[in-house]
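Limitations

Structures in this collection are predictions, not experimental determinations, and the ligand pose is part of the prediction. Treat each record accordingly. The example that follows, with heme C as the small molecule, is included so readers can see exactly what is and is not provided: the inputs are given verbatim, and the output is the predicted complex.
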Amino acid sequence: MKKIILSALIAGTALIAADSAPIYKSGVLLPPNPEAIYKKECASCHGVDGKQTSFSGGSTVEYLPINGLEAAKLAQELKDYRIGTILNKQGYGMLMKTALTDLSYEEIDSLAEYISNTMK
Ligand code: HEC
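Predicted complex:
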């Protein structure tokens, strides 16, 4: 069991290392890059246009489209998901929390602007 965990950890580290350009922690690396963040953290489930409403991970998970939402409302929802106890509309709030934990509030604000302005 320990071996399995260890090799999973090593594989994970290799993945992170391969994806070299850091996109987080904009407190250090200003300015935030919402397009890169969206592609890395959101597009797999919400699609490049924000219109994807399901993905299969064992069982099929369904949710609402995120295009066309107003930026301020979107930013607040994302922060609520990030906290992890406030928002859980379909029972999958933990998936969202995981996607958002590495992001600062500044990055979340710029991500919300990006989604709202580019995904009509
Ligand atoms: C692993 C798949 C997955 C990833 C990655 C993901 N989401 Fe989600 N998203 C979901 C699911 C599932 C829900 C429904 C959560 C619930 O039960 O409340 C959701 C809900 C949302 C909602 C609320 C939609 C609504 O109006 O009900 C928004 C907004 C959202 N996601 C944006 C994002 C953004 C921005 C990112 C990237 C930082 C992201 N998501 C990453 C799966 C994902």
